[in-house]
Write a structure and sequence with these properties.
about 290 residues, Rossmann fold, 10 helices, 2 domains, three-stranded parallel beta sheet, binds guanine, alpha/beta
């Protein structure tokens, strides 16, 4: 069993991005500029946005955090989006989700200029991804593909089972793994809450990608000997073995499952660090133009 070290790969990709920023600057060009819009003070969103801003600083990008109170109106947020769309100093931006209940996420995401949509959430980018045109890819699936590439894990002709069909992870993951290419070309099964015989489906996976958001859901009896297991979940659970009284776990029961795998991502330090790196890669592309 080999651990897929997302933390190590993220450091490497960030170094490559920093080199690219230095090349841009040496050519007299400005660094990429990412803006993160945060509405309200959801603690998880605060943490994510802080990590994104820190990662920008690490690679030499300009970053701006725009914070608004939870009672801002939808109209006010749409006005912010409109300003960002027209601001030529901003290459890409994200509106951190979830938004307060009185603001329509769909309306806001639809208002983002697809050329600046570095989250890859706009239907224009989703449509381009599905048809294989250059597009901003959603960060978590793109990060997973990058990990498979960097570890040179064979995917062509393999059976990839994805558990979870969210717009942000499961659905685009299934699309990317089924596309043509050396690091794709899988036969894909997309499982979800209504799937019958989930265990039998999971057992067929050469590559099992788990993104359903339930702590330690995947157990050893659901995993084929020699499978590659990618764990997208991250949860805080109570623990009497740590000083803090909690520990982080994924959607996979790591201790049980790991001995059966050829490769597995740990939690933390697997998929998580790659998600932010993908956002940085998209922002660099936004600066240079999609290719
Ligand atoms: N909320 C949780 N993940 C994400 C993400 O990748 N982008 C945005 N904008 N919001 C999120």
């Amino acid at each position: 069993m080999e651990l897929i070290d997302g933390k190590k790969i993220a450091v490497k990709v960030k170094q490559e991005l920093a080199d690219e920023v230095n090349r841009l600057k040496a050519n007299g060009e400005r660094a990429p500029h990412l803006v993160a819009v945060l509405v309200g003070n959801d603690p998880a969103s605060e943490t994510y946005v802080a990590s994104k801003v820190k990662a920008c600083q690490e690679v030499g990008f300009k970053s701006t955090e725009m914070r608004y109170s939870a009672d801002m109106t939808e109209e006010q947020l749409l006005a912010v989006v409109d300003r960002l769309n027209r601001d030529t100093d901003v290459d890409g931006y994200i509106v951190q989700l979830p938004l307060p209940a009185h603001i329509s996420e769909e309306k806001v995401l639809m208002a983002i200029n697809p050329d600046k949509d570095v989250d890859g959430f706009h239907p224009c980018n989703v449509g381009k991804m599905v048809t294989g045109l250059p597009a901003y890819l959603p960060a978590t699936p793109a990060g997973i593909v990058e990990l498979l590439k960097r570890y040179d894990i064979p995917t062509q002709g393999k059976h990839c089972v994805v558990i979870g069909r969210s717009n942000i992870v499961g659905t685009p993951m299934a699309v990317l793994m089924s596309r043509k290419g050396r690091h794709a070309d899988c036969t894909v099964t997309l499982c979800h809450s209504r799937t019958q015989n989930l265990k039998e489906m999971a057992l067929q996976a050469d590559i099992l990608i788990v993104a359903l958001g339930k702590p330690q859901f995947v157990t050893a009896d659901m995993v084929k000997e020699g499978a590659v297991v990618i764990d997208v979940g991250i949860h805080r659970i109570a623990s009497d073995k740590t000083k803090s009284g909690f520990r982080l776990v994924g959607d996979v029961d790591f201790e049980q499952v790991a001995p059966k795998c050829s490769y597995i991502t740990p939690v933390p330090g697997g998929v998580g660090p790659m998600t932010i790196v993908s956002l940085l890669q998209n922002t660099l592309e936004a600066r240079k133009g999609l290719s």
